[in-house]
Amino acid sequence: MIKVAFAGVNPADWKIRAGHLDVAPFGLELPLTVGLDAAGTVVATGEKVTKVKKGDRVVSGTNLFSNAKPGSYAQYLVVNEQRVAIVPDHISLESAATIPTAGITAWQALFASDKGGLSKGQGTKILINGASGGVGSFAVQLAKWAGAEVAATCSSANLEYVKSLGADLLIDYKTQNIRDELIKWSSNGIDLIVDVISADSLEDPVGLLRKGGKLVSVATLTDDGDVETSIAEAKERGVTKVLAFMNDLNFGEEIQQLIDIVKVGNLKLPPTEAYDLDNVVQAHEKLETGRVRGKLVLRVK
Ligand SMILES: NC(=O)c1ccc[n+]([C@@H]2O[C@H](COP(=O)([O-])OP(=O)(O)OC[C@H]3O[C@@H](n4cnc5c(N)ncnc54)[C@H](OP(=O)(O)O)[C@@H]3O)[C@@H](O)[C@H]2O)c1
To answer: Which domain range does residue 231 map to?
Structure first.
């Protein structure tokens, strides 16, 4: 059992709360306590638990397609030890709460064999569409860590921030033409697009890719377009399109892997803005604008 100090706030939380997601297909029933990510301190363990002990600082999470239900907007959370990673002393629990959903979604979108399939050191050219939010902040840095060349879209307000994440080519999606900038950067097309915005945020994304390239669209569950048709059309044009859903099968291990990359200095956790749990309404209102840089978290007392 974890005494929650900070709960991560993710777009899925407000989409559930606002009734945009039919929760039944995920095996969830209303009413429910929202919240996928939590960081805090272990206050009790079951008899068979070996990985953590009382007093350990930990981070944990779940997702919608999971045998563990949401519920991290709470003072206490009971989780399986396989979903838990230890937070080292130099990482605050506030920062750790940013990792599970955003970090692992980015990790899997880039590296999972059924998604981006990126290997380290291939010199791949990647576009991260939506680089300044939760998922994008991890994706840019992890792609750089893997040795890729990274183009990243953001608005002018976030150019400096996205540059600080290590992006090689910054494209201001409000004032620049994304296609023109990418063609100047890589005339034969790029290898991989990770799109965390929506089906229609890029004009003809398949046309930006080289033959054999991949388009990984992180599923928004509200704005994914006609998925079957777009996957079939991409295939006809020699490109693989994947609608990506984070899975939490190896959550604890994958979160630990990200923490290890943080430890060696190759990943900075996103900047946070913390709200008291009592002010969750304001946090959701802010996230719903779609303008958050980094991550919002809730401080649980
Ligand atoms: N399927 C899954 O398993 C899964 C998992 C995690 C997340 N998701 C989904 O992935 C999406 C992204 O999640 P997130 O946590 O990264 O969201 P987020 O943190 O709320 O993203 C906000 C960021 O998006 C940027 N943005 C908005 N419109 C943009 C555009 N047209 N082009 C480029 N950047 C734009 C904003 O920057 P500006 O202010 O500069 O515009 C802002 O910094 C959400 O729809 C979420 O539900 C799905």
So the answer is: 102-244
